């Protein structure tokens, strides 16, 4: 099969790889759409020790079951594989499973390939009237849905629901869409890239700014750098909530003294639960997250060029989707 392989820092190769094989309880998926995630970019830049080269990256995918009794079933893929027997899994917090695995991290290769093997429990059926490129957004949207849900659950019920989302990439935009779907009407995205700001405002209908000092009761950091944590610490209103998604860098920025004195809740959020993933997929299918027409589709063979352009800030679209069969 053809695959896009991370070979070294800022080096990707489009080449032949052994075809994926389905194990017991798994289905072979013919991947039709696979999105580029910020974590893929971190690996590409050599910033993620969990993703050593050589490795097939990619974990935001949708496709069609190839072979077996469910041949032809259109599915979107929850890439998080868990044990299903530990206390975390039993209590519905599968994302905290100590034995969790995610495709695009060893020992599981990723979805920038023509085929992928996944357990049946990780697949959600996609209706015929929903495009698979849109269905592939279930994974990044679920990350943001999970963060928005936790932030709202942590916010005191008497407080005004006003939100700032730091970062206008796919996760940040998805967080804004999720918050609105959950009833938060005042949501502003902070995005420094001028080209992306214009795209978010004109194409996605979002309220967007390059910076802000306006206090907000909900702050979602979809970037995760010291500078964005510093901004989150500054603009979180007393008694507010910061939900931290981004994994840009490990340390710095958080004003622990202000968080303590103003009783600001800080929540680290990682991936999503199985229920969050299913809820997000259903919200996509029902159109509750908008038209989701802000993606840019490219052949997987052009993946190295797409990564390079994303690295240079040349792509305005919040999400690039790669097709292995074009």
Automatic annotation (TrEMBL):
InterPro entries: ADH-like_C, ADH-like_N, GroES-like_sf, NAD(P)-bd_dom_sf, Zn_alcohol_dh. The keyword Nuclease does not apply. The keyword Transcription regulation does not apply. Residues 170-284 form the Alcohol dehydrogenase-like C-terminal domain. SUPFAM superfamilies: GroES-like, NAD(P)-binding Rossmann-fold domains. GO terms for molecular function: oxidoreductase activity. Keywords: Oxidoreductase. Pfam families: ADH_N, ADH_zinc_N. It comes from the Bacteria. Residues 23-128 form the Alcohol dehydrogenase-like N-terminal domain. PANTHER family: L-THREONINE 3-DEHYDROGENASE (PTHR43401:SF2). This is Sorbitol dehydrogenase.
